[in-house]
Design goal:
This protein is α+β, with helices and mostly antiparallel strands. It is built from five helices and eight strands; from the N terminus they run H-H-H-H-H-E-E-E-E-E-E-E-E.
Length: 220
Amino acid sequence: MDFLKDYFLEANPNPTRAGCPPEEKLKAMAEDRLPADDSARLHLASCSECFAEYRGYRGEWEERRSARKRIAGWLAAACVLAAAGGGAWLYQLQKAEHRAQVQLASSIPVETRVNLFDEGTVRGIEGTNTLQEVSLPARVVHLSIVLPRFSDPGRYLIRVSKDKVGNEVVAQAVGDAATSDRKTTAVVTLDLRTAQAGEYFLATVRGADNGTYYYPLKIN
């Protein structure tokens, strides 16, 4: 299944976004709210950009749904303890509430920024760009990336992986990059909560030519 997902992420580049459905349809599809016969479902199999966006929305929706189920389970258990009586019920209730608060807090994105403006653009898996003292937390991050000098605006796939082949992808998302004051900045949201502390690679993929550039990254 991972092979098929990786295939659809790169097999059908559509840099001009020809025939792409609106963002709300992709979100509805990711959240199982789109009718089964909607034409947007067929488009997904022929557009890597839309498939990447769909994957991002799907992951966020599944995480929210899982969090709600866990919280409901904790609260239900606390209610059972309270109904049963005994001195431990209040402690269990407070513990369940604390866990719920921690879970919700961990899903709130942390604002982060990576500046690649003065970095090189060594392309492909044979080379790695030099990037000094750049790290990201093992959290949900709302990441602003200042792309290297002379980068074109447009749609980018941002990927964090353990290797440069793409077999150990930790997180990835698609975002639009805009140019202001001669600097091009892409903005994406990445869920890095499952990443172990250590060394990784940050990759930027430009849809127009499917070029991939790698930069060393530390997650802590």
